[in-house]
Each structure stands twice: as C-alpha cells, then as structure tokens.
Specification:
By secondary structure, the chain is mostly helical. It has one domain (3-99): Helix Hairpins. Helix content is 73%, strand content 0%. It has helices at 3-21, 27-48, 59-83, 88-95. Helix 1 packs across helix 3 and helix 2 packs antiparallel against helix 3 (59-83). It starts with a helix and ends in a 6-residue tail after the last helix.
Length: 101
Amino acid sequence: MDLDTLSERLEKISVRYGERLGFERDPDWFLLKLQEEVGELTQAYLQHTGRARSKGATPGQIHETLQLEFADVLCQLLLFARQHDVDLSAAVERKWLVYED
C-alpha cells in the first residue's frame, strides 16, 4: 500500500469524521488524537499481555482489538504527518533505510 495514496484516503475519512462530530481538526487535534490512539494501543497491549483486566473480552477479541489499535495509531500518524507536510516515505529513507546493507 502506497503511503501517499493511503494518506489521501484517510484525509477524506478524517474530514467527514470532523464534520459529522462538529469539531475543527486543527494542528493540536492531530497530535492529541495521535496521543489518544497510542493510549488505546497501550491499553490493548496490556490486556493482550495479561497485565490489565480483560473486561470480559476473549483472548481472540483482545488480539483483534490490539490489531485495530495498531491501525488507528498508524492512520493517525499519517494524518498528523500530512497536516505538517511531512513526506514520511522520504523521511524513513533518510532516517532508517540509510542503514540497510
């Protein structure tokens, strides 16, 4: 999946989300929403590793929630980067892939 194409699709969904719920997606919102999603990923991870209450969820449900929370974090990070005109593909090339053999 191409990050730029995914980012464009996510932006359309996010705009509709903000309009439907009646809030402005300002620069602060993107960072705060990312932080919220990281918190939810942390909670799902704690449940997955048995260090938080399962709240009645089965192991399969907990694993599914963990996967979906990873997706939320990734998508919100892509939206945050887009908001600040960050080319993540290029940044990953410069920051990580320069160390490939």
